[in-house]
Amino acid sequence: MVDNTDESNGFSTVLPYNWMLIFAVPPSPDSSLAHYDDWLRTLLIHEYTHIVQLGAYGGVWYPFRAVLGTVVAPSGVDPVWMKEGFAQYEETALTTGGRGRGSYSEMVVRTSVIENDFPSIDEADGLSWRWPAYKGAYIYGLKFLQWLSDTYGEDKLMKFDRRVRSSILLTMINHQARNVYGKTFYELWR
Prior knowledge:
Layout lengths: L9 E4 L5 E4 L16 H17 L6 H7 L11 H14 L9 H12 L20 H18 L1 H13 L6 H9 L3 H5 L1
Helix pairs in contact: 1-3, 3-5, 4-5, 5-6, 6-7
């Protein structure tokens, strides 16, 4: 935990081992992070979710993980919207705040619908210079995962996550989506 910046943020990784860097400064009231009950708890849940989700493995990955250690992190190749969406999904589910309850994400999604400028699933990864830029992965990832959970049930969302981290088909998330939801993410996104 550090207190050498005025930024509200954190960072976590599973390589070379599990660790988090937490900036102890709470967000300003106009920040997209401003909807929280306990800032530090929300941030720790978010970053710990990254550790758990990215470090999880199963199926064909057991022998590789036994030999290579944490270098084998199947969920590490997931799209950014998925990784950030899961972390925000948990920060919302496990607190009375979280970005899933905040008005900022809702406002961005609603505005993109009203302006007929809703990004494709590929554009939602936050790699665009166009607004909301990197925040797109957080905003649209969260809202998409919430929609999947509300529409199909949280058990299917967790089943999807388990299938991805257990499969040799690392980047073929649409294949796993079809197995769990009966549709690809491209179809579900629409």
